[in-house]
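Quick entry, no commentary yet.
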Amino acid sequence: MRMRWLVAALFFVIVPAVLAQPTVKPACDRACLENYIDRYLDAMIAHEASPDLFHKNCRFTENGIELPLGGEGLWYGMSGKGTYKFYVPDVETQQVAFIGTVREGGAARGAKAAPGGKPASPTTVGVAIRLKIVEGLITEAEQLVIRPEQSLSGPPPASTSPSTAEAVEKMGAPHEIFTQTIPEAERMTREELIEVGNYYFTGLQRNDGKGYYPFTDDCVRYENGKLMTTECKKQFESGQLKGIVTRIRDRRFVAVDRERGNVYAFGFFDHLPINWTWQLAEIFKIEKGQIRRIEAIFHRAPYGINSGWSTYEQGMSEELQSIR
């Protein structure tokens, strides 16, 4: 009898306590994470970092420089969305990355008038974005903005080739290979996928034809919307890329879509002899431990620049960083 009373007493104490616990918000699935990118772009168009979307201490960087959130960089002049959209949701770490295009200037504030006093047309720019979501709010936002060459004193220099953003938009949409689902039994872990992606960086930096180059025979690479090679494996095995880059550093793997085998990384390519650095975002499609397709966008940055998210030592290191 005493045992029954004890059980009953515990029931009336424990159950209300459990019910009183705060409800834990469910983690975002892939569609939810992709929606955060859309809401983020909408916020930039509205030039408003509202508290229902952003944490009060959200950190923001553009092209490696930390800026006030909501009023500077692309936030100042974004005027519309572009047509190219490539999402890489990472459900495991609640991050989402993106490569796409947007419109800057034109009817937006700060836009210069075109000759004749008419409003200037918006410029199409390329963007690479990473967002970190915690308890329903964006706590970290970093982006690269790849703009056409500009001049402070007049119209941009004439060019016979399309800008990065224009070339990316001509691609239409991410290649269907990137959207194909990996069978569940063949899916690699997040860290395994990152390790394979990093072999590209290591193989390019130390290209002597003797390294480990995990490419499929049909691997291709696009840079800034343009096809650069249809023979990734042959290029690396021949050693023809030896010396093309001095150092590949600050290799930050920020989003992994295990369901589709897509791995997203930020990094820097340094070219010491010409004092030149490329700041880039890169996506790898990986199947059965091999890289099948690569897509990258990048721009020239001050030599030796840091991502804004790494220490000096990390920023100069060739070691990979798995960002969570």
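second:
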Amino acid sequence: MELIQLMREQDCVKYGDLRDSEGQFEKAIAAYDSALRIDPSDADAWFDKGLTLKKMGREKEAASCVETAINLYCGR
């Protein structure tokens, strides 16, 4: 299944997680971004995107994503 075929935000997150586990980090980021376009308040997508960005060495962006996720998890 290709990312373009995914319509539900949770499907995009799952696709991103799969791509991340395969080391396809750019595809994972694209999937998380798709999920966030559908639901910008999806804390799981923000958190997973942050983890992937960290693996890519993009520490500042990763920290921002994780902080956003924490704020959403905590209801801020």
